[in-house]
Write a structure and sequence with these properties.
Distance between the termini: 21 Å
Structural class: alpha/beta
Helix content: 25-40%
Number of strands: 32
Oligomer: single chain
Number of helices: 29
Largest sheet: 11 strands, mixed
Radius of gyration: 38 Å
Shape: elongated
């Protein structure tokens, strides 16, 4: 071998050069990039750049200003950021104004906790002082969460968020409430609502969560004393319940009109001798099982001849088991027909307590039976209640009264069951009934249904087309004061009638829901929901600013309402004060004739008004009403989506949004719900500290967020590996494009080799699919398409094949210039595609190549040339890639056996019929990265080691290399 063949050719090879590091170091690097955006006001720059463009308005659903962000917050805001960034990428003006929900029970509860630690009583602190502490608490967490969300790379108007506790916001909420009032779309009524005895307030459905509990179930006998069926007199109607505490306020029994009832009698239990029990025929077996357990023996029940149809029970009356107490308990209880009575469980007879159940309330009211308000706001029977009230003491003089949700109070050996047993009315009692039960999501305590005077928005009364003037008596009244019964709720009105329910249902059909199942979910909720309970008996919130007359009607005077709104805009909710009563009412009204309402609004009404004081206010000029999109978790079908829908339909005739996008919940790696008590929570801030925000973003945008999804260490390690591959793709592009000058090197599409043209076809396909994914809000698909293109079409195919030309061709040759031109196109596209996902990395990539061209996030996508789409070429390359996989598979055994060290040393022979049209053997050798390719008439790919010598520069085994280590013809020309 001559000295020439031993020459070191490394200096003649054009290897990629870049300062872009392989190791990301995101936790250290991202804060600096973020600081640069803030210093340069990137959000403001983007607004200026998109000024005049088509708008896309995502209205932010306000998170609660309470505590550090959790993984759900992170996912939610990353998705919102992805929406705005992808819409901006399409050239639209997509501002993001963040907001916070600042009023309500969770914050009030936290401040009360601080009071309890200091042994202070909240009720002894002036309301204004207490509210000031709530306001300060909320502001602290707004500031904390703001910095945490900014760290995730979410771009928005962070210095100018909306807060429901801003004076302007509070005034707007009051103004919206007054629209309901002036139009007569409010009423005050007494009916059962979900009530938290611990927090002493009514709760909305969205403030309730359901947990499995074990309750006491009891069978209670009510003696029948009057009936049109003589045989029933002296028998006992048996009811079954899992809420023993409601028996002390029982006022009736309900039967199913079509249910078949019969009389059964116990034959072998002395305690029951002579007792006859009225029960549904279909439930005798279940009743018998409970008796067996109660008496510790097999109870033989004998059925009497004859069947009584429920409707025949009309006119039957029973005696309360505690009738000996007199007074309230002395009154006979009627048996009433109830369509809601079934034979699914129990006895087929239901005891009615209109204070504590919706069905009970409406059925009793139809029959002239009113609530008695026996349970107070703390969940105990009132002091003067004859059974288990304040004066009911045991033998030692100790009060027997307890909270009605107290398990021991309801237990088989508790005071209720003990008294019923002593009265001979308790047939069975066992603390073993497992079922789902509502709890307050804040205190985690059980709730009850409690009849209290509350303010409601009716769902099924015709909506007034415009605010009413003067003293409207229709909706602006108490049902008690007017003596007019409220309609059963829910009671959907006829089709086409302009009720709030019908208007909302119509909008649900119009709005686009992603995923589509969201439509069915909110439709079923609105279709069956009761009237909207607006009032809460708390301090921290927007007051229900109504003046009520002694007859229960409320004032509907726009001038008074405007004075109240103006005062709250100037001084916040503290302006609603008794001291200003006369000022607000003005000279036209006598202040002594009115009472001020001091309940506060349901916080869902607050958040339901956010579209007004953000999109309509003009404070954020880039925003406009209605919103294109609302995006929140799927639980908001009963929360913010619904409250916003109802508020806007009542005041504006339509939903405040055109589209609704929902996501599922983040579960632990094992699929269980995250819980601090279990210790399986994942802190997004720790993920950012360990991996970087871009890794968290890549995870959030890689999972199918429309479903419940998982996160954990192993999952994040997989995401980090996915990120490294994408980063290396950009690193290769930056190195391969070092010094690229399009004016000097650029090659027209028509002059490019087929591989480059095929790659641009694939890019055009990708572009179309990504745009579709943006339209579908399918960010899991968006990220998958991007990563697969980078890994499969580029790294494993184009880059692998073309590295030989990049490294070894003369820089002036058209093939190498065409490849670099293609890489430049790919770079410009890919960094834009990746920018909404990997916001920090994309900025690092962009500024590495273009340090003076501003932020990548100011760029947008441009339409790709139509000529790049070449289906015929794509079909040929699809066949080629399939054949290439077969060749790679055939080479691998020789590589493992170390017969060859790389595919460059392989002599490949492929079946003649498998070669796609238009590819010659030299083309195939280049595309397969093989030493040579030939064809044969067989069916399998054959591989052997090439007998040619290896070029000392490009390392290919070629016939033109005279001796091992010498140059091939191509390299000879390139070097010389």
């Amino acid at each position: 071998m001559s000295d020439d063949t031993k020459t070191d050719w490394r200096d003649t090879v054009f290897l990629p050069k870049t300062d872009f590091p392989m190791k990301a170091g995101l936790p250290q690097k991202e804060p600096g990039i973020l600081a640069g955006w803030q210093q340069g006001d990137l959000h403001g720059q983007l607004r200026a750049a998109r000024s005049g463009a088509e708008k896309f308005i995502l209205h932010d659903g306000p998170p609660y200003a309470n505590g550090d962000i959790h993984t759900g917050h992170a996912l939610n805001h990353i998705l919102k950021d992805m929406v705005c960034r992808t819409q901006s990428l399409l050239g639209k003006n997509a501002p993001y104004v963040p907001g916070w929900d600042c009023h309500g029970l969770p914050i009030e509860w936290k401040v009360e906790e601080q009071y309890r630690k200091k042994k202070l009583n909240k009720d002894e602190v002036p309301r204004a002082e207490f509210r000031a502490e709530c306001r300060a608490y909320a502001q602290k967490w707004v500031d904390t969460q703001r910095e945490q969300l900014k760290r995730l790379g979410c771009l928005g108007d962070w210095d100018n968020p909306y807060l429901t506790m801003d004076f302007d916001s509070e005034a707007t909420i009051v103004a919206e409430l007054m629209k309901f009032a002036e139009a007569g779309n409010l009423y005050r009524g007494s009916k059962p609502v979900m009530w938290s005895p611990v927090e002493k307030t009514a709760l909305a459905e969205a403030e309730v969560e359901y947990e499995d509990i074990t309750s006491t179930q009891i069978d209670v006998a009510f003696e029948i004393v009057e009936s049109p069926i003589p045989e029933l007199v002296g028998a006992h109607a048996v009811i079954w319940t899992t809420t023993p505490w409601t028996i002390p306020v029982n006022q009736a029994l309900a039967y199913g009109p079509d249910v078949r009832y019969g009389i059964v009698e116990a034959e072998n239990v002395p305690q029951l001798t002579g007792c006859k029990f009225l029960i549904a025929r279909d439930l005798v077996r279940q009743f018998n099982d409970r008796l067996d357990k109660a008496f510790g023996t097999t109870v033989l029940l004998k059925g009497h001849d004859g069947v009584t149809i429920g409707s025949d029970l009309a006119g039957t009356k029973v005696r309360h088991p505690m009738h000996h107490l007199g007074g309230f308990y002395e009154t006979l209880r009627p048996m009433l027909a109830g369509d809601f009575v079934t034979t699914d469980s129990g006895t087929g007879l239901v005891h009615m307590s209109p204070d504590h159940g919706e069905d009970d309330f409406y059925l009793c009211r139809e029959n002239g039976i009113d609530p008695v308000f026996a349970v107070d706001d703390g969940g105990v029977y009132r002091d003067d209640w004859p059974w288990l009230g304040g004066d009911d003491v045991d033998e030692e003089g100790k009060e027997r009264r307890r909270a009605v949700i107290n398990a021991n109070f309801n237990a088989p050996d508790g005071p209720i069951c003990s008294d019923l047993r002593e009265a001979g009315a308790l047939l069975s009692a066992s603390a073993d009934y497992q079922h789902s039960y509502p709890h307050s999501w804040r205190s985690k305590a059980k709730i009850i249904y409690r009849c209290t005077p509350q303010w409601f928005v009716p769902m099924d009364r015709p909506l007034s087309p415009s605010p009413l003037e003067g003293r409207g008596l229709g909706e602006g009244a108490s049902n008690d004061a007017l003596g007019q019964p409220l309609p059963p709720t829910p009671s959907p009105s006829g089709e086409g009638e302009n009720t709030l329910r019908n208007r909302a249902m119509s909008e649900i059909e119009r709005v686009r829901f992603v995923p589509e199942r969201g439509r069915n979910r909110i439709r079923s909720m609105v279709e069956g929901r009761p009237d909207w309970v607006l009032s809460r008996q708390r301090a921290w919130g927007v007051p229900i600013t109504l003046f009520v007359r002694k007859d229960g009607t409320y004032l509907q005077d726009p001038a008074v309402n405007q004075r109240v709104v103006d005062a709250i805009r100037e001084g916040g909710v503290d302006a609603w004060d008794e001291a200003r009563k006369a000022e607000f009412l003005g000279p036209d009204h006598d202040a002594s004739e009115f009472e001020m309402v001091h309940d506060i609004l349901d916080v869902w009404f607050d958040s339901g008004c956010t579209h007004v004081f953000t999109l309509e206010s003009g404070r954020w000029p880039a925003l406009s009403w209605p919103a294109d999109l609302y995006l929140e978790g799927s639980d908001q079908h009963r929360g913010w989506f619904q409250s916003s829908l109802l508020e806007s339909c009542a005041t504006r005739g339509r939903a405040p949004y055109d589209q609704v996008l929902t996501h599922g919940f983040t579960m632990a790696a094992d699929g269980r719900k995250m819980s601090k008590s279990i210790g399986n929570t994942v802190d997004p801030l720790k993920i950012v500290d360990q991996y970087g925000a871009d890794i968290l973003r890549l995870w959030a945008l890689s999972v199918d967020s429309t479903m419940d999804h998982r996160i954990g260490d192993e999952i994040l390690k997989g995401v980090a590996d996915q990120y490294r591959k994408l980063r290396n793709t950009f690193r290769y592009l930056l190195g391969a494009l070092e010094g690229y000058d399009h004016d000097a090197e650029g090659v027209a599409y028509a002059e490019m080799p087929e591989l480059e043209r095929y790659t641009l076809h694939r890019l055009a396909e990708l572009d179309g699919k990504l745009r579709q994914a943006i339209h579908d809000y399918d960010f899991n698909e968006y990220t998958r398409l991007l990563t697969e293109f980078a890994n499969e079409d580029l790294s494993a195919f184009l880059f692998d094949i073309r590295k030989d030309r990049l490294y070894c061709d003369d820089p002036a040759w058209v093939e190498r210039r065409a490849y670099r031109t293609c890489l430049d196109i790919l770079f410009q596209a890919l960094v834009r595609y990746a920018a909404p996902v990997l916001v920090f990395t994309a900025e690092e990539v962009w500024t590495t190549r273009f340090p003076d061209r501003g932020s990548i996030h100011l760029e947008q996508l441009h339409p790709l040339p139509g000529e790049w789409t070449d289906e015929a070429l794509a079909a040929r390359f699809a066949e080629l890639r399939a054949l290439r996989e077969d060749v790679t598979e055939a080479i691998e055994p020789l590589r493992r056996e170390k017969t060859i060290r790389s595919s460059n040393e392989a002599a490949v022979s492929v079946p003649q019929q498998a070669i796609p049209q238009g590819f010659g053997m030299e083309d195939l050798a280049e595309l397969f990265i093989a030493a040579s390719v030939s064809a044969h008439d067989g069916e399998d790919v054959k591989v052997s080691r090439s007998s040619n010598n290896k070029c000392g520069r490009c390392w290919r085994l070629l016939p033109s290399v005279s001796v091992e280590g010498a140059l091939c013809d191509r390299c000879e020309e390139a070097v010389n």
